[in-house]
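WARN no homologs supplied; continuing
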Amino acid sequence: MRATLFRALVAALAVCTFVSVAAADPVPFTVTCSANTADLAFTNQQFSMKIQDGRDFSFNCTGCNLVDGTTYNTSTTGGALFGSYLDVTIGSTTYLSYFTTKVAADTKPGGLGPFDYSLTQITPLLWCDALGTTCTTNQYSGSVTSVDSLHLILAAGTFAPPFAVHVCDSGTPGTPSSPGCTGTTYFQDSIGNIAIDTPEPASLALFSTGLLGLAGWFRRKRQP
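OK structure emitted
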């Protein structure tokens, strides 16, 4: 019995150390791209895109002038992502916002890819009912950690599928996962591959340390 438990603990540690898995699965979003524009939309409100951490939106492109590790503001005229925006529907109202994002190059979100670039730390600027200079006050003051759509514009370059999205799933059909990213999160590409969202390094290290401690305890108990 103890030997069985020990093997189970070692197996659990291996799973927690290598958390990325891939399997074909229905894709809850569409990405429509044309030259330098890409539009992400979800087909079911149960799903949304996680923002403000991780590799939230990943893509390939040729001729892009994006720089690894650089933070871009999509409201800045002449910027590499100028004009890109997010939208989220709360109740019956849809809000739109420009955003800032830190670009990471040559990424594998959850083990998927590789992709040329990922948008990370996506942070909305000002939620408005229409984009433009007329919106000067935030019309939605609540917390938004997931959005329903992303409209991405490149100042230079051409998009090339596939894409990958940091997905939120409320777990209940008809129940919105936005704006608060309720439920579980995972990475999924536009051809159906899924990768489990990797825990924060500190949490993973703590959990792994606990498992190692238990494994050591069982090993000592087995010794005569």
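Residues 23-198 form one domain.
OK
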